[in-house]
Design a protein that fits this description.
The strands form three sheets. Strands 2, 3, 5, 6, 7, 8 and 9 form a seven-stranded mixed beta sheet that branches. This protein has a three-stranded antiparallel beta sheet with strand order 1-12-11, with no helix packed on it. It starts with a strand and ends with a strand. With 356 residues, it is of the alpha+beta class. The chain has ten helices and twelve strands.
């Protein structure tokens, strides 16, 4: 867990503000009325508004283990130890022991040790140790030329003028400074089963990276040069890594900001429609809010949408009783925010969960 005080600064004035309905069904909220959206929440809406409804309004979370997510979170924890240790020139055996220990903390806390490794392979601790060794051989010496500025730094940036109290929140995996040039770069760790052209194309354009670029420029100005995707292939027989540099133009940031505000407006308009339906005491055969994007029903990350059956069998899910053998009513929140009003303005204390 990390804890940081973050003060929102550097408002963007290139776009006109829009008045949004003050519904409070999604996002993270503080007592003074600030609302925070992160990329994961907005990505749910981009995928499908009905998916957003099930996940963020009804808080339906599928039961069972999801090895790719747990492995990814565990790998992030290993990298949090690996990068600073490699930067200061720690001995390889000591470094790998420490990084693997951090991997196991997340892995074991997620109860993955209860499952058969043969069923999970290649997403197993044994494979992770093999990958860590190969990762050191590929990058261990190279990391000595970087100064590690921050590990898992949370940020908060304003999306509009302060009267709307609408904020964007996220977390940068790593921030580094080049020894010779003084250039600052952000890094984002990604695990994937295949590192190819399709994987690379996921990041340009990419709303998460555009938001990171915006936040980094607000923090470091022109010293910030760009984001890097630090990719690792988790495969049964192959070991491969990829570092993908990303540069974002100012016009792309402006587009990202406008699109982000538009998506939030869509979410809040649908929340208002949902509240109006709930208050109407009507019982329609369909839900007049949070429409389905049927193109994504059968293919999300190569599999059917986890809520597909709910859409097939329940045209109006407002009256649907959760089935405990499939879902639990619990929404994982990556950020917890507290606020304090000071003479210099509002200051937010951010506590972030592992794996975000």
């Amino acid at each position: 867990m990390t804890n940081n005080d973050v003060r929102p600064t550097g408002f963007i004035d290139t776009l006109d503000s829009t008045t949004y309905e003050k519904t409070k069904l999604s996002g993270v909220h503080t007592p003074s009325g600030y609302t925070f959206f992160d990329n994961s929440t907005l990505e749910s809406a981009r995928t499908c508004l009905r998916y957003f409804y099930f996940k963020h309004i009804r808080k339906f979370n599928p039961l069972g283990y999801r090895p790719p997510l747990v492995f990814g979170s565990s790998w992030h924890a290993a990298m949090d130890y690996f990068w600073p240790a490699a930067s200061r020139g720690e001995k390889k055996t000591t470094l790998l022991d420490g990084a693997f220990s951090e991997f196991l903390k997340i892995w074991q806390a997620s109860n993955m040790i209860e499952l058969d490794e043969m069923d999970l392979y290649p997403r197993t601790p044994t494979k992770a140790l093999e990958l860590l060794d190969a990762y050191y051989n590929a990058y261990g010496e190279d990391l000595k030329r970087y100064k590690i500025l921050n590990v898992e730094r949370p940020f908060i940036i304003p999306l509009t003028d302060d009267s709307q109290k609408l904020m964007y929140i996220g977390k940068i995996d790593k921030e580094t400074e080049e020894e010779r040039s003084g250039d600052i770069n952000g890094w984002d760790h990604k695990t994937a089963s295949i590192l190819g052209e399709m994987w690379k194309n996921n990041f340009a354009p990419n709303s998460q990276m555009d938001g990171y670029f915006h936040a980094e420029r607000m923090e470091y100005g022109q010293r910030f040069r760009g984001m890097y995707i630090d990719g690792i292939q988790v495969h049964k027989t192959k070991i491969d890594f990829a570092r993908l540099p990303l540069i974002c133009q100012t016009t792309q940031v402006e587009r990202w900001l406008w699109e982000t505000l538009e998506w939030i407006a869509d979410i809040q308009a649908n929340e208002l429609a949902l509240l109006e339906y709930r208050e109407s005491n009507k019982h329609l055969d369909f839900l007049p809010a949070f429409k389905c994007n049927t193109k994504n029903c059968s293919n999300q990350y190569g599999k059917p949408c986890i809520y597909r059956d709910l859409c097939v069998y329940q045209n109006n899910p407002e009256d649907y009783e959760i089935r405990s053998e499939y879902f639990e009513e619990n929404l994982w929140q990556p950020f917890e925010i507290t606020e304090k009003n000071t003479k210099d303005g509002m200051v937010f204390s951010v506590e972030s969960s592992e794996g975000e």
